[in-house]
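Notes to self, WAT1-related protein:
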Amino acid sequence: MEQKNFSLLFLYREFKPHIFMVLSQVGYTFLYFITEASFNHGMSPYVYVTYRHVVAGVVMFPFAYFLERKIRPKLTCSLFMEFFVLSVLGISLTLNVYFACLRDTSPTFVASVINTIASLTFIIAVVLRFEVVDLRNPHGIAKVIGSLISLAGVMMITLYKGPIMKDLWRPLIHIQPKSGPINDSGLKGSLLTVACCFTWSLWYIMQASTLKRYPAQLSLTTWMCFIGAAQSALFTAIAEHNNPSAWIIGLNIDLWSTIYGGIVVGGLLIYIQLWCTEKKGPVFVTLFNPLSTIFVTILAYFVLGEKLYLGSIIGSFIVIIGLYLLLWGKEGDKEVDFKTKGILQQNNEDLECRI
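result:
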């Protein structure tokens, strides 16, 4: 019994980042649907982003203040500017455009296209030397091939529909359809979604750089929430200047989506991502994004009655294959680190013996 408990504890410690990232994708999956319901109810996505990060900042502040008093580095002007840029890339600019796309399309479509973040982050990380790719090593080849396969799966989900799968039962929850025609492949929506993917990829890369100088994840999360909320409030004031009533929300789905987005997504999940970024790097974090596409597709089909196409099923399996290849390739980095540390330790021992 003790041996079994020891094995489970070892597995948990070894795969804790993996477990946290899978759970975070479950959290993002519910976000797609609760925000879609809120936007269909009439809430402005710009107001939602502002309120959500006000809630997140207020909730995270006491944890950051008390738990990181001893490890929090001194705030400098250059660090504050980094926080400002991070807030633009990850909150005020990207999220406002992202939720505008979600309002005009569907959760399945946006979740599918957003998964190009993993491939874009990998490419940018390689160019900026945050990620090392050794094509002479099987793990390095696996990372490249896995990235391409994952991207191919996402493109299949997005571009190829195929036959419609037969409905097994009536939807458990009914969300009112959006008014007006929706064109998922429209030029405007596609360009905006790709722009979100690019800025989000830069956000993940920049987090890894900032965390080296400011290794206080809770404090960094709080700073980004407050700064991002202020930036988004300014943007919202401009976008909704003819609609002051947009700032008013009642005791309905608008309030619950704001609380969920603020506490769970804006606070807890961002902190988890920062922790995993520091432990495993930005590419590792984005590798799990395709899981939300699969979860959204399954939930939309079985619970909401959204149409499920054969292309989505095939594409999901392709994405999973690419994800496993990338993860296997990333595990090779750990082996290289262990070998490098062993060589350095051996060299130090030889040097001491000579001395």
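- The mean pLDDT is 77.
- Residues 17-354 form one domain.
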